[in-house]
Amino acid sequence: MLERFEARWCIDNDLEAFPKQNPGVRGRKTAEPNRSLAFGLINTSIAAICAQCLLSAMNKPVPCASALQSQLNEVGRKVRECNEENMSEHRFQLQNILENGGFPRDTPIPAEADRQYNNPLRNSRGNTPFAPATQTRDVLAENLTPQKKIIAFNHENKLCKIGECARRRGVEVDCPGHEGCTATLSVEENAGDEKRGGRKLASILTSGSHPITVDKLCTDADGRMAEGFGDEMKSKQGVTTEHYLDTVHLNRAVAKAISRARITPQLVTEHPCKSKEHRQAINRLADSIAWRAEREVRAANQKFGNRKDLAAQSITAAIPALIKCYEDKHNLCRKYSLVCDGEKCVHEYIPKFARGAYRFSPSDTEVLAVILRKRMGKEATRKTRYSLTTQKAESVNHAFAKTNPKHSMTCSRNGVNRDHSAIHMVNNAIGDSILIKAKACNVPLAPNSPALSTLHHMNRRQSYFRIRASSSREIQQSTCSSTTKQISLV
Fold first, then answer.
1. For helices 451-489 and 430-440, what crossing angle results, to 10°?
2. DSSP structure string for 217-275
3. Whole-angstrom Cα distance, residue 429 to residue 420?
4. Which of 12, 154, 242, 341 is the most exposed place for a label (fewest CB within 10 A)?
5. Which pLDDT tens digit goes with each residue over 351-390?
6. Beta bridge partners of 393
7. 209 HSE (CA, 13 A, CB side)
8. pLDDT tens readout for residues 250-302
């Protein structure tokens, strides 16, 4: 039996399942769930096609890929503007801090900077003189406050989908330069020019309504970012920027240089020359010497304080004593070393049976002395006298991995927008960042939204781990300082 239903009346206006964006504008409107989905994707590493797969697997309505990409472009632009305004506010707060402390608002501040590439550089080592990357990101963090906010960001991109499609159709276009181009560098330009990135960072700081000058910049030792930064800062504001080296990178460079030097020390032990223990003792020698050099530098800075000239002389004089210490010869240690007193010396990373059992040839001793001057020489001591690091700038790389991870995805159009989203979450709490960006993208959360409690929990979790990490660092620093004081007293 069939039943038939007839409508006796109807409504002229269309019933809307969801509220629409821009109701007063002519043309097709955007549903708020689609805009909210695009905003959620810009805060994660999920692309438009992956979002379609996710929604299809959940048996949910799937938006069109092109429409979703259009929403990502619009939301990404607003997120970028929101973060640029937020970084400008942080620069304004730095000026207020200087003024409240009795300093002029244009007083130079210390900062740290770092660069990341979207491709691993080791894959093309020896095959090209340029950096094998299509995207780069330069981050600069202030060192005036304990929070170390990100106050400048530069993104360089060689990719442009519009230009690529046009060239496939036979249309000659140059990237960058045409309408809608997303590239900032041409294919022929070197993406590894850190000097250009440093100039752009300095230009961002010195322009705008709240200009900031930097007189101390800490970077790693394998780039020229500080050179370009100093040139731009000198030409725009007349401020001379001193370059300092990151101690963590410098220690790694020393250990790597010792490993590559192929020194062949003799090991006077009962273990056979080709045994596993023997190879382990030889391989760990580089890490042990690098860490011992770091301890000598810390001990000298702790003992002499502001008398940097005396500290530099003490550090440089300890180089031959350090080498002889691994041969169990402590005559020079008693005179020059601030770590070894000649009786109780612990070599980190070295097995117990191999401590003091190394024998270096004259050529090995000379090579080690040359390498150690990179960390304990007068020039290295001058550039590391404040023990500055780039850990804050490098920690942003972990945030980039959440929104625009390298090695796994390359966003030609929204890569810069995803990076700005990550920086906004670093400068602000994760929950607060999402609320601010949602309001800027015109998708604010309702006052009774269940997501508010989740965002609050994310803030508390992030605060807990930050306090935990800072307390562990304080414990480690206090332990190192107490050990240095005991050694200096002896």
1. 140
2. EEE-TT--HHHHHHHHHHHHH-PPPEEEE-HHHHHHHHHHHHHHTT---EE-SSS-TTS
3. 14
4. 12
5. 777 777 788 888 989 999 999 999 998 888 889 888 888 9
6. none
7. 9
8. 998 898 888 888 777 777 665 555 567 767 777 788 888 999 999 999 999 88
Cβ atoms < 10 Å from Cβ of 412: 18
341 in Cβ contact with 487 (< 8 Å): yes
Q: What is the mean pLDDT of the chain?
A: 83
Q: Which one, of 332, 342, 411, 334, lies nearest residue 118 by Cα?
A: 411
More confident of the two residues 343 and 249: 249
Residue 482 to residue 489: CA distance in whole angstroms: 11
**Beta strands 150-157 and 214-219, pairing class:** unpaired
Using CA atoms of 196, 202, 204, 205 in order, give the dihedral in degrees to the nearest 10. Answer: 170
Amino acid at 76: G
Beta carbons of 404 and 411 less than 8 angstroms apart: yes
Give residue 23's Cα distance to chain centre. Answer: 42
**Cβ–Cβ < 8 Å for 105, 95:** yes
What the block records as the tokens of 199 is: 């100039």
Residue 460 Ramachandran class (φ > 0 left, ψ -120 to 50 alpha, else beta): alpha
Nearest partner of 382 among 316, 338, 333, judged by Cα: 316
Q: How far apart are the first and last CA of the chain?
A: 104
Structure tokens at 351: 């097995």
Amino acid at 59: N
Short-list 389, 404, 399, 405, CA closest to 423: 399
Task: Name the amino acid, one letter, at 481.
Answer: S
0.90 surpassed by pTM: no
Angle 415-427/32-42 helices, nearest 10 degrees? 80
Residue 268 and residue 359 in contact, taking contact as beta carbons nearer than 8 Å: yes
Residue type, 255: A
Q: What's the half-sphere exposure (Cβ side, CA atoms, 13 Å) at 358?
A: 28
Residues ≥6 apart with Cβ < 8 Å to 201: 113, 138, 140, 152, 154, 225, 229
Q: Is the CB of residue 131 less than 8 Å from the CB of residue 153?
A: no
Mean pLDDT of 74-87: 93
Q: Say if residue 176 is preceded by a cis peptide, omega within 30 of 0.
A: yes
* Confidence grade of residue 485 (pLDDT, cut at 50, 70, 90): very low
Distance CA 121, CA 128 (A): 10
Which residues lie below 8 Å from residue 128, measured CB to CB, with a gap of 6+? none
Q: What's the CA gap between 332 and 334, in Å, rounded?
A: 5
What is the spatial distance between Cα 386 and Cα 217, in angstroms, rounded to a whole number?
Answer: 11
Pairwise CA distance, residues 105 & 213, whole Å: 10
Q: Look up residue 182 and give its amino acid.
A: T
Q: How far apart are CA 476 and CA 483, in angstroms?
A: 11
Q: What's the CA gap between 249 and 339, in Å, rounded?
A: 22
